[in-house]
Amino acid sequence: MAIDSDVFRWPAVDAVAALRRGEISPLELIDAAYERIAATNGSVNSMVTLCPDRARAHAKRLMQQPVAQRGLLCGLPIAIKDLSDVAGVRTTYGSPIFKDHVPTVSDPMVTRLEANGGIVIGMSNTPEFGAGANTFNEVFGETRNPWNTALNAGGSSGGAAVALATGQVWLANGSDLGGSLRTPASFCSVVGLRPSPGRVARNPGEVRFDTMSVEGPMARNVADAALMLDAMVGYDPMDPISLPAPAESFLDAALAGRLPKRVAVTADFGITPVEPATRAVLAAAVEKMRAAGIEVIEGCPDFAGVPTAFQILRALGYATSMRPLMERHRDLLKPDVIWNIEKGLALTAEEVGQAERRRSRLYGDMVAFLREVDVLIAPTACTPPRDISERWVRLVDGVELENYVDWLKIASVITVSSCPSLSLPAGFTADGKPVGLQIIGRPRGEADLLATAKSLESLFGLAGEVPIDPRTL
């Protein structure tokens, strides 16, 4: 039986349902994915290393099992960001230092996804070590935005976002320190969820208790993101902060939906410039929410000093985890990474203490604030996508920015809070650039957040806008 030629457009939830019914096989979906990659990747450069033999071998093993034993994803092809090890597959971290690296053991997150029936078909592009919100590196080059290939796709999970938007895969993972999952979701009009620290077990490396960087799902709609999260979660003893899987699935929570009664909105958290075009999309979303009977108030907790705390804690993490690499390979590291490491090495104990105290105070403020509203909503990024040649944003609404992470304040301050945040497509600028909004929930409140986001997704009316063929405007 010939498969639907538009199978690459199917939502992941529908594709998994078809797999369970036996209407399509994992091998057929793998073929469809690789056909779509062949048709679109030359324009966008989102998938950088493919592993067809490994993928098909995994599919054949799955197909020997009863459907009920094939896991939550049941043989669905997925992309893995080129920061997470996949055994037997070239994994470079976007760095010339590791351009020929082929790990023998997979990241715990990858192992869990494969155990849940996800079939890895290849690696999505990332900036070097995930540093920066524009996806380019010296190993594979730059990833372009499919809505307009002259624009950047955001980062550091830009390859994942583009692979989803163009229909190359149905689901992808991303990682997020200061917006690396949310920013590309906004720039490419897909969904990206930064979960609470510990929700998804990670490969902790030498810093097992890190709570700043997390792994999370990326998808074309909220239900698909919830399905991916279900396949990612679970306790792993090697990750000391990892959480057990909840009793109720996140997909069930999302599908139940729940329109919020009261939301808070802020355009800038009082700490960052935001482009007028982005503010206009937020204003239009507010009008839609009010028309639906949602009470919308303007306001947020006090975020003064939080961007400084983020930069200190980020730099501390870089110095802790990457100093040995810099000492061995300084000549092969990009300047932005060296800057972050050296910033961390120069920190004083008092600076670190101040950052930790500021983070603690923000957490308490967010818990109290989110008792009064269902969610807090803000733009995901302070600007729509920019020209691909602009490696980092230096000017926003007339305000000059100091460094390559300064323009990410609007996302990074939520990192400091430890609250889960979902980037939801919300609209387009007058010249057709995607804009996403962060829907920010209570700590460890992913189920409620997904239910709210699913209802807002219906209200905003943008689900199904992707996949698209890459456009040159």
What's this model, at a glance?
This protein is of the alpha/beta class. The protein has 14 helices and 15 strands.
Overview of this protein structure:
The chain has helices at residues 12-21, 26-44, 52-63, 108-115, 158-165, 182-188, 222-232, 250-256, 276-291, 306-329, 335-345, 349-369, 409-417, 446-460, and strands spanning 47-50, 76-81, 118-124, 136-137, 141-142, 171-176, 191-194, 214-219, 262-265, 295-298, 375-379, 395-396, 399-400, 421-428, 434-440. The protein is an alpha/beta fold. The protein has a single domain (10-460), classed as Amidase signature (AS) domain (Amidase signature (AS) enzymes). The strands form 3 sheets. An 11-stranded mixed sheet has the order 1-3-2-6-8-7-14-15-11-9-10, with helices on both faces. Strands 4-5 form a two-stranded antiparallel sheet. Strand 9, helix 9 and strand 10 form a beta-alpha-beta unit. Helix 10 packs across helix 11 and helix 10 (306-329) packs across helix 12.
- Over the alpha carbons, how many angstroms does the gyration radius reach? 21 Å
- What is the number of helical segments per DSSP (H or I, 4+ residues)? 14
Gap between N and C termini, in Å?
Answer: 38 Å
DSSP E strands, number: 15
Mean pLDDT, all residues: 97
Number of domains: 1
